[in-house]
């Protein structure tokens, strides 16, 4: 999940690479480097830490080269330090390679390279790759062939870019399992691991598929298979403006993304709700609607926050569409032997559309004949392209590592899918209209909650020094409890657990004392009274309680220390509202602790390794 960028053209590549790396930093940020070709040398500049460190370092060097590659790293093999940062050299320092992914057979390859006399300076699997390419260059192959031959020996995943002093007119790139996109410019071309790094320069892109290699010149590009067959690739136009992927005056991307949820939700549902008929219209599913509605079973596969959205969808679909639903961690699903048939539909939820485990689960489900539906944010991403059909959530670029607006947009799309299939089954037009109406009201209701930002910040302030947190909810609110806990631990490093409220008595209750803040997500629904009993149990043991409750629930204020009020909607949509205060609380606690909320330690936005 490192970030890759490259440039070839008539401009100085170095500032372009640095700018690209900054836009990719959310993918990995423990070290960064650039490599360039000058008249007679390949040069590498690397720094441990963030891209700004690298920028500071090279700004004094006045580097200039019309071809270069850059990398921001999320360590897999070898600790994050300067030596392990990319690019990596061959022994003669004529070839430079950057790599995203994992070379699984790297120890076998490393041993055989050692036997041939290669020495290694880093602990990375990438250095194995660069030396493998070097072996073929020494046998007289050109760069592109050497890359192809080396990759044919490699097991694992890669998105790579290589430049070579003897062929200074090209960057060679290849992909298997890690995204790579070519940005087609005017007398200049770029490459990157995602479009965020390209958008300032061009909106015309070519996505590489697995097992494809490309030679990028300043005025042309040639794409072929690993087996050397030439391919004709379409140039696509990407959507989204540069403003959309910048902070736009907010102190952090995460805050911006939380605050823009009324807008992102509107974008997710725009043109998709037909109120008068109580229907949802999802262009991507046309032709597949009956097959989904007639599924014997729906399985939802995802990771992280997307998995939590899947758990909410389980409640939605079972309540309204009468189809049994199972929700699976993609990482578990891919290595089980899932019993699937063509009567099953598997929904893959992914913000990035590149998560390695989700993608592998998708391939497995396809192999077994199930209908695969993608619910994805990043347009043109691998999961979006590999699914049989799907729905984009249209949340816009999400840069903060902790997912916020993608979660609510996923819930919107999942509620629309539910409405669509439920109306094909037993749901009446009147009930369909009620859901449609409630969906349309969400943007304003979310705005009402965001208007209480200051109040939520004040609550957050009281808990900055907490070491633990418990989040409890039932029914539709159980996944929200998990998501609230995940948000807090991701960015504030406070240990937090989410639990179904009724399960508290089977263990977590032992933890309750005056040092244990407990967040109850307690809208007034069918299980509300039972949740109140749980609140009493925590109170009796001295726990400090924060409750998220409905606006019209005045009684709860007497029961708990702090209440955050949200508007009311139908139970299936309440998670869209109740999660907002939890996002804001996590954000404010992390900011008050002085932490980097957009790039929390050890995490990455797009997890393209296992
Ligand atoms: C990483 C991110 C999470 C995200 C998860 C799944 O862990 O930090 O925010 O929920 O991956 O990512 P996806 O892109 O598939 O939704």
Automatic annotation (TrEMBL):
<dbReference type="GO" id="GO:0006047">
    <property type="term" value="P:UDP-N-acetylglucosamine metabolic process"/>
</dbReference>
<keyword id="KW-0808">Transferase</keyword>
<dbReference type="GO" id="GO:0005829">
    <property type="term" value="C:cytosol"/>
</dbReference>
<dbReference type="InterPro" id="IPR017932">
    <property type="entry name" value="GATase_2_dom"/>
</dbReference>
<dbReference type="GO" id="GO:0006002">
    <property type="term" value="P:fructose 6-phosphate metabolic process"/>
</dbReference>
<dbReference type="InterPro" id="IPR005855">
    <property type="entry name" value="GFAT"/>
</dbReference>
<keyword id="KW-0677">Repeat</keyword>
<dbReference type="GO" id="GO:0097367">
    <property type="term" value="F:carbohydrate derivative binding"/>
</dbReference>
<dbReference type="InterPro" id="IPR001347">
    <property type="entry name" value="SIS_dom"/>
</dbReference>
<feature type="domain" description="Glutamine amidotransferase type-2">
    <location>
        <begin position="2"/>
        <end position="219"/>
    </location>
</feature>
<dbReference type="GO" id="GO:0006487">
    <property type="term" value="P:protein N-linked glycosylation"/>
</dbReference>
<dbReference type="InterPro" id="IPR029055">
    <property type="entry name" value="Ntn_hydrolases_N"/>
</dbReference>
<dbReference type="Pfam" id="PF01380">
    <property type="entry name" value="SIS"/>
</dbReference>
<dbReference type="InterPro" id="IPR046348">
    <property type="entry name" value="SIS_dom_sf"/>
</dbReference>
<feature type="domain" description="SIS">
    <location>
        <begin position="288"/>
        <end position="427"/>
    </location>
</feature>
<keyword id="KW-0032">Aminotransferase</keyword>
<dbReference type="Pfam" id="PF13522">
    <property type="entry name" value="GATase_6"/>
</dbReference>
<feature type="domain" description="SIS">
    <location>
        <begin position="459"/>
        <end position="600"/>
    </location>
</feature>
<keyword id="KW-0963">Cytoplasm</keyword>
<dbReference type="InterPro" id="IPR035466">
    <property type="entry name" value="GlmS/AgaS_SIS"/>
</dbReference>
<dbReference type="GO" id="GO:0004360">
    <property type="term" value="F:glutamine-fructose-6-phosphate transaminase (isomerizing) activity"/>
</dbReference>
<keyword id="KW-0315">Glutamine amidotransferase</keyword>
<dbReference type="InterPro" id="IPR047084">
    <property type="entry name" value="GFAT_N"/>
</dbReference>
<protein>
    <recommendedName>
        <fullName>Glutamine--fructose-6-phosphate aminotransferase [isomerizing]</fullName>
        <ecNumber>2.6.1.16</ecNumber>
    </recommendedName>
</protein>
<dbReference type="InterPro" id="IPR035490">
    <property type="entry name" value="GlmS/FrlB_SIS"/>
</dbReference>
